[in-house]
Amino acid sequence: MNMDLQIRISRKILRNPLMNASGVLGDSPDSIRLLSTLGFGCIVTKTLTWEPREGYKPPIIIPLKYGLLNAVGLANPGIKAGKELIDAAKEKNIHIAISIGGVNVDDFVRLAEVASDFKPDFIELNLSCPHTPGYGVDAAKTIAAIKNIVKNVTSITSIPIWAKLSFSRSLVNEADAALSNGASAIVLINTIPAMLIDPYVMKPVLTHKWGGLSGPAIHPIAVYAVYKVYEELEAEIIGVGGVESWRDAIEFILAGARGIQIGSALIRCGHNIVREIIDGICKYMAEIGINRLEELVGYAHKR
Length: 303
Known about the structure:
CATH superfamily: Aldolase class I
Largest sheet: 8 strands, parallel
CATH topology: TIM Barrel
Distance between the termini: 27 Å
Strand order of the largest sheet: 3-16-15-10-9-8-7-4
Strand content: 15-25%
Structural class: alpha/beta
Radius of gyration: 18 Å
Shape: globular
Number of strands: 16
Number of helices: 9
Number of domains: 1
Mean pLDDT: 95
Order of helices and strands: EEEHEEEHEHEHEHEEEEEHEHEHH
């Protein structure tokens, strides 16, 4: 099969649109090297904060029949470890996005300044982690806050900025706020707040009580989010949420995504899932007579 899976994301051409989601692996040079062998076109680091974070005590990840429930607590080695992560990706000649998470505008700016010095291909702003107080949705809880964070970050770096958001009633306005203030792409969507209660222990299972739901359960919601934001803004979008097959990936592309992040599937389905999805996309393209993946981006809006 001679299929062209190259795709342009934030001014750079990736060999294929697949990448890992920021919550899975990506926190050590060895994990970056492992990710580089799986078939991704780009790697995303764990979300890095100013200081290292240990995160919450176990249990932090609960497998469910329809996905994963997790509250890791943004465990990460801290921003200073970012250089080793970027260097590991460069050793393997693969694109890399460094994900950062702050508690306010100044925190995001200083994180972005340090991250820029490491020269990643992209910087992803985690504006939507649902279970770590002070970070994510707490730091970017209003459209004004999103504008302020993105505007200030993009003013101090020339590296393309991605804004990672989760589903909300004001999602299109939030995406517009990020894009109009300098973001080059929107990542949709982060995990959705959720909880599991043990009927015998009679209390929440997670140490943090609630966490973020990922996996197949949120996939239709994520597809809707990508479709709506593309429909309203024709934005550059990276879709994430419940991708476990080539069909899931193609749904995102047809809805308007140019990139696709895979998270829970690496745990639920194993590392071979990446190449299985790539093979499935190629077979699908051959079946419908399409040679260039670019031709399918947003195609559902033309029907």
